[in-house]
Amino acid sequence: MARKIFVNLPVKDLNQSIEFFTKLGFSFNSQFTDETATCMIVSRDIFVMLLTHDKFKTFTPKAICDTTQSTEVLVCLSCDSRDEVDTIVRQAVNAGGKTYSDPQDHEFMYGHGFQDLDGHNWELMYMNPSAVDG
Question: Does the global pTM surpass 0.85?
């Protein structure tokens, strides 16, 4: 069985976060969605649980990171092309997110990122398949 990953992120306004990520093309599993949480589907084996702050606090005794002051995590997703990287970043900015760096072009690998409405950092990268040994 393939290993799955569930990234858990606290959000201030669940409905706004759902609207934001919907504009980026993500969908949600209604079976794991209520007024405190939703399960965003990234791929067959990758999911992001967006949790209200109160719900998130039930999983950890630590304080929730102030993303205006600190970085708690960098979530990096692969893309199928440089254009897809740029498109998703553009969609994120148009939906209310913001960029925090310039695109990085290393010829064999291209990346750019954005911050979502809660300041979580999302990196997007495309790696030329011919540059990867396999």
Answer: yes
